[in-house]
Design brief:
There is one protein chain. This protein has two domains: 141 residues, Aspartate Aminotransferase, domain 1 (Alpha-Beta Complex); 237 residues, Type I PLP-dependent aspartate aminotransferase-like (Major domain) (Aspartate Aminotransferase, domain 2, 3-Layer(aba) Sandwich). Helices cover 39% and strands 14% of the residues. The chain has twelve helices and 13 strands. Helix 5 links the parallel strand 3 and strand 4. The longest helix has 27 residues. Bound molecules: pyridoxal-5'-phosphate (PLP).
């Protein structure tokens, strides 16, 4: 076999697999301990009833000759693309229905969009960040340069004026740091991208956690962004769809050929999200669904605030926790050593910053995806060992 040689360049130990291994080993030695997981970025609350009911109705339709559906439209059913475009318009952002592409999630789209770009592109990725941006580019052999995020810039790097990139990744609110760019900061990135003819791949997976009206939830809140940015979003963190699978990508017509190319790519390699799931996603925009989802997000945000307040009371430097489900704090030099200490002495699982990039070392991520009781208990134990 002639294999893709770039796979050899991937780092082989996957962060969450290593965490699982260490937790399993500890559990084996200490089976009676009550371990609280504030590690993996997966939601814990179930789907809301409006979504579940929409799903049930859709399943029934699929079992009746008159309402059965086969293959759906490539960009997604118009009831959903219209709801998505409408939600943008409600926030004053002009998005046309034909700029919306429904998919099985943001992870797929973030990886698949690379089909549209030349392999000799230079890619600018924040460090630390969601590992998918790096790995998908490594698989295709692209040159990667990093935008350093650190305490000095509040984990919100800006263009350094000397790095030349063709593809720029921005994730705001950020995973893992929880940091959120201001509109003014995003405008700097947009100006930079326009000036060097780069594309911004903007990951808005956590936009629903932004409560502060002064902070942007979409790159398209910035003037000119429609000429340089693609935006990825997902129902995963917004509405608990991590196991249900649905997301969407906005590819503006102002980007030129890109919208057509993405339609061509999707219609060739993807046959769409199931009708049932698209109906469930549609319910997220309904009156009832909106209110139910808001309640879930507020519950996570309460946990995030508790974690952030605990760190504040201990004078520990951290980002996130206010407009994000993630809290990123300074833990000392060796984040894997801190992971072990937290696991062994407090029975709390978090994520070592080193797993998110070179600049992640010395930092640690906790997530708000647990219930209030567990989060409170974890913070009590945390205080005792930090
Ligand atoms: C969770 C997450 C996503 C969402 O991925 P899905 O495939 O839609 O579940 C996208 N980007 C980031 C940074 C995430 O953390």
């Amino acid at each position: 076999m002639k294999l893709n040689k770039h796979f050899a360049d991937l780092k082989d130990s996957y962060l969450f697999a290593e965490i699982e291994n260490r937790v399993a080993a500890y559990k084996k030695e200490h089976p009676a301990q009550n371990i609280i997981k504030l590690g993996i970025g997966d939601v814990t609350l179930p789907l809301c009833s409006a979504v579940v009911e929409a799903g049930k109705r859709a399943v029934e339709e699929m079992g009746v000759k008159e309402t059965f559906r086969g293959y759906g439209p490539y960009r997604g059913y118009s009831f959903l693309t219209e709801a998505i475009a409408g939600a943008y318009r409600e926030r004053g952002i002009s998005v046309d229905e034909t700029e919306v592409f429904v998919s099985d999630g943001a992870k797929s789209d973030v990886g698949n969009i690379l089909d549209l770009f030349s392999e000799d592109c230079t890619v600018l990725v924040p460090d630390p960040v969601y590992p998918v941006y790096v790995d998908t580019n490594v698989m295709q052999g692209r040159k990667i340069v990093y935008a350093d995020a650190h305490e000095g810039n509040g984990f919100l790097p800006l263009p350094d004026g000397k790095t030349k990139a063709d593809i720029i990744y921005i994730c705001s609110p950020n995973n893992p740091t929880g940091a959120v760019y201001t509109r003014e900061q995003l405008a700097v990135w947009v100006d930079y991208a326009l000036s060097c003819n780069a594309v911004i791949l903007f990951d808005a997976a956590y936009e629903a956690f932004v409560g502060d009206e002064n902070l942007p939830r979409s790159i398209f809140e910035v003037k000119g962004a429609e000429k340089c940015a693609v935006e990825f979003c997902s129902f995963s963190k917004t509405a608990g769809f991590t196991g249900t699978r649905c997301g969407y990508t906005i590819v503006p017509h102002a980007l030129g050929e890109l919208n057509k190319m993405w339609l061509r790519r999707q219609s060739t390699k993807f046959n769409g999200v199931s009708y049932v799931v698209q109906r469930m996603a549609e319910a997220v925009f309904g009156k009832e669904g909106k209110a139910q989802i808001r309640k879930n997000i507020e519950s996570y945000k309460k946990n995030a605030a508790l974690i952030s307040d605990t760190l504040k009371s201990m004078n520990v430097y951290h980002t996130g926790g206010v407009n994000s489900p993630y809290i990123w704090f300074k833990c000392g030099a060796d984040s894997w050593a801190f992971f072990d200490r937290l696991l062994h002495n407090a029975n709390v699982v978090g994520t070592p910053g080193a797993g998110f990039g070179r600049n992640g070392e010395g930092f640690f991520r906790l997530t708000a995806f647990n219930d209030e009781k567990n989060t409170a208990e974890a913070m009590k134990r945390f205080k005792d060992i930090f």
